[in-house]
Amino acid sequence: MRSQATLTALALVSSVSAFWRMPCRSQTGVGRLDPIMDPGEISDHVHTFSGGGGFGFNADYGTLNATGSCTSCEVTQDHSAYWTPAMHFLYSNGTSVMVQQVGGMLVYYLYYLDHVKAFPAGFQMVAGNKNTRNFTGPFPDTDLSSWPTDPSDQFFLQQRALGFNCLNYGKDPEPSLYRHQFPTKDYMDANCQDGLRLELAFPSCGNGSSDSLDHKSHMKYPSLVKEGNCPEGYDTHHPFLFFETIWATNSFAGEDGQFVLSMGDPTGTGYHGDFIMGWESEQFLQNALDTCQNPSGNIQDCPLFNIQSDATAATCTFPVPDALANDDVKGPREGLAVGIPIQNGPQPATQYLVAGRSSVPTSSIPSTTASASFSLPTLSYTAANPSITSTAQGGIIIDKVSIASTSTSAASSSAAWSALNKVEYASSSSITEAPSATAPAPDIIATSYMTTGNQVVELVIEEVEVTVTATPSAAARHKRHAHKHAHHAGRR
Ligand SMILES: *[C@@H]1O[C@H](CO)[C@@H](O)[C@H](O)[C@H]1NC(C)=O
Ligand SMILES: *[C@@H]1O[C@H](CO)[C@@H](O)[C@H](O)[C@H]1NC(C)=O
Ligand SMILES: *[C@@H]1O[C@H](CO)[C@@H](O)[C@H](O)[C@H]1NC(C)=O
Ligand SMILES: *[C@@H]1O[C@H](CO)[C@@H](O)[C@H](O)[C@H]1NC(C)=O
């Protein structure tokens, strides 16, 4: 029989905000498209796309959800399109190359607000502003308790909805949304040995419309970006979408030049992203939001989701439109693709001519100067790595294996262990055996519950440091922190 104490504990658990983390490990494409901002025509900068394969200049719910279309995300019922600008490295001699995006995109669906309501078919939105070129606040952020409780300053919140996380898996991770512009190149060379993670928080307070003229003003941030008070009239609480992409900026350590977002932004403050709802139905997404509340955040723990392999997901791409066939976006090439000027700010960026648009002759596109002798830097990543560097919201880096779970009974210990294993080790190619561990005073990082017959067993998942003895690769010796706090976006 369940004891009163256990029932109380369960009730508490179910009130905790939940989340799930959608891996979209491969891109559907890269190029100058943006069917929200520039429907039907060439976009003024390059994006990288994940999600639905029914994509193109005129993508919308209908094309994404069309029969037979695919998705590059792991959940087959999600054909949503997710995109952000690409990151390039501009050598001081004017040659640019696209920085390698490592492991595609992670899209978090987090429920911070109450009564979370699914995005309807036809819903789309943009977060961030491509023309912003400054961050005006202090670094680091002042304590959240000092932020205005009134969310009327949306520019303040929008600036703080961007994160540039310096990755160094040998050190304690930075929290999510810790800094709101690119670190300097020197800082990155010295500290960000595993690259840079770009983070984008979308607004989650809606006014009931699926879109608006500027594709932004139907949505607003709550007072603390991810949670807090919604502005008046914005009482529809949507899931809090959070994009993470990792870029192998470390490949350019010691090189003379600068990182630039594709719209000519060397500051990072113009980072932005787009979302078109492409779930098979609003009702399906609502059911998923209501049902998939496992604190693990693992999509595998949601019984409604059909999961496809990353290999299958990777076959989902969209055809490059003819108008973009001659774009060399990855480089090496002269200048940014395609002929986009660098605008340093701090004043907002201004519009430039877009090569290939009806009024602009294609001859204004700078020639691509890929020289045969140019070789890309050797990358320290392999494609398999990102799946085990995925993070929980909160900037917690999950690096190579160094977690074990312990609990009060052998049965629950192994259950917790396999629950962790399921995701964390699933696509690891370098880990061949379970790690052996000695457990120094573990911290409890999560609890969860399992029903066995008529008994409810509490699983206490604790974090310990583990030395992997099976595979003595350098990467496997890294320390890892795994957090299972579903409801914390960390210590911001
Ligand atoms: C610019 O510098 C990079 C890095 O040294 C080099 O690979 C590239 O070939 C140079 N580009 C030109 C046009 O000389
Ligand atoms: C939501 O906001 C947009 C932009 O201000 C407006 O056009 C639209 O009418 C609003 N929708 C509702 C349902 O109030
Ligand atoms: C989206 O696609 C699904 C699966 O083919 C279909 O059942 C559903 O009716 C479509 N939704 C809309 C709104 O067209
Ligand atoms: C900072 O950016 C904002 C938004 O683009 C702009 O309104 C403001 O003028 C900029 N500040 C400066 C000093 O240029």
How would you characterize the overall build of this protein?
By secondary structure, this protein is α+β, with helices and mostly antiparallel strands. It has two domains: about 5-10 and about 395-485, no CATH class; about 15-370 and about 375-385, no CATH class. It contains seven helices and 21 strands. It has helices at about 5-15, 60-65, 155-160, 185-190, 280-290, 310-315, 410-425, and strands spanning about 20-25, 30, 45-50, 80-85, 85-90, 95-100, 100-110, 125-130, 160-165, 195-200, 205, 220, 235, 240-245, 255-260, 270-275, 335, 390, 395, 445-450, 455-465. Strand 20 (about 445-450) and strand 21 (about 455-465) form a beta hairpin. The longest helix has 15 residues, at about 410-425. It is globular and about 55 Å long. Bound molecules: 2-acetamido-2-deoxy-beta-D-glucopyranose (NAG) (4 copies). One 2-acetamido-2-deoxy-beta-D-glucopyranose (NAG) binds near residues 91, 93, 369 and 374. Pfam families: DUF1996 (PF09362). InterPro entries: DUF1996. This is DUF1996 domain-containing protein.
Q: What is the topology?
A:
Elements lengths: L3 H12 L3 E6 L4 E3 L15 E5 L9 H4 L16 E5 L1 E5 L3 E4 L2 E10 L13 E5 L25 H6 L2 E5 L18 H7 L4 E6 L3 E2 L12 E2 L15 E2 L2 E8 L9 E5 L10 E5 L5 H10 L18 H4 L19 E2 L56 E2 L3 E2 L12 H15 L18 E10 L2 E9 L29
Antiparallel strand pairs: 1-7, 2-3, 3-4, 4-16, 5-6, 5-15, 6-17, 7-14, 8-16, 9-10, 10-14, 11-12, 11-13, 18-19, 20-21
The protein binds 2-acetamido-2-deoxy-beta-D-glucopyranose (4 copies).
The site of one 2-acetamido-2-deoxy-beta-D-glucopyranose (NAG) has 6 residues, from loops.
